[in-house]
Amino acid sequence: MIGEPGESDMLRSCNRFVAAVLAAGVLLFQTSVAAAAQDNLVSDPPETQGGAGRLGKTVRIELPITGRTLERVRQFVRRAIKKAEEQQARLVLIFEFHVPEDQDDHGRGSEFGAAFDLADFLSSGELQGVRTVAYIPQPIQGHAVLVVLACEEIIMAGDARLGMAGIDEKVITESRQGNYREIANRRKTIPAEVA
């Protein structure tokens, strides 16, 4: 779906982002994410509070995305927003898209409806003032890509890539393409034409 930038460009981009984050005094994600929640859909690692009134939280999303994933992420995000409001801090949410080790097909199988509803939520007015970042540590494909497009920033590991979003579909309808364009146009992280 998306052309891969050169590795040196990716490393430079990641280094600039990390430097900016550290300068702001916010630790956004840890190299060792805490154990996943009981059903392995979303993990709630310890929060980190940085300077300048920021609160960072990491949400680990196990692929594929289902209706259950959608509800757990919504609950997590709403609790984080409430906590940030109580602390009068700007919330930064990192969504780490995780493909289970026993899955060989890069997260295929995400339900379109659940992925669209989650993307719609993450790019809605309810998250106004919340910084959303997608962290992609490994290649992913399928409708999880739609949720990535709903974030304000995308950080990818050197060997990560966004694969074909419609890989699970027999026919890509105009309405589905329209859903991707709609989410892409809200955030403009990826041009709608590319999405």
Descriptive report:
The protein is of the alpha/beta class. It has one domain: 2-enoyl-CoA Hydratase, Chain A, domain 1, CATH 3.90.226. It has 5 helices and 6 strands. The longest helix has 21 residues. It starts with 6 loop residues before the first helix and ends in an 8-residue tail after the last helix.
SSE blueprint and pairings:
Elements: H1 7-23, E1 42-43, E2 48-50, E3 54-62, H2 67-87, E4 90-98, H3 112-122, E5 131-136, H4 144-149, E6 153-156, H5 174-187
Parallel strand pairs: 3-4, 4-5, 5-6
Antiparallel strand pairs: 1-3, 2-3
Kindly list the characteristics that best describe this protein:
six-stranded mixed β-sheet, alpha/beta, 35% helix, 195 residues, 2-enoyl-CoA Hydratase, Chain A, domain 1, 6 strands, disordered N terminus
By helix and strand content, what is the structural category?
alpha/beta
Radius of gyration: 16 Å
Number of helices: 5
The CATH topology annotation reads as 2-enoyl-CoA Hydratase, Chain A, domain 1
- The chain-level mean pLDDT equals 78
Low-pLDDT runs: 1-41
| Helicity range | 25-40%
CATH class: Alpha Beta
Order of helices and strands: HEEEHEHEHEH
Count the strands? Answer: 6
**What is the strand content?**
15-25%
Instruction: Please state the second-level CATH architecture.
Output: Alpha-Beta Complex
Spatial shape: globular
- Main sheet properties: 6 strands, mixed
Total tally of structural domains: 1
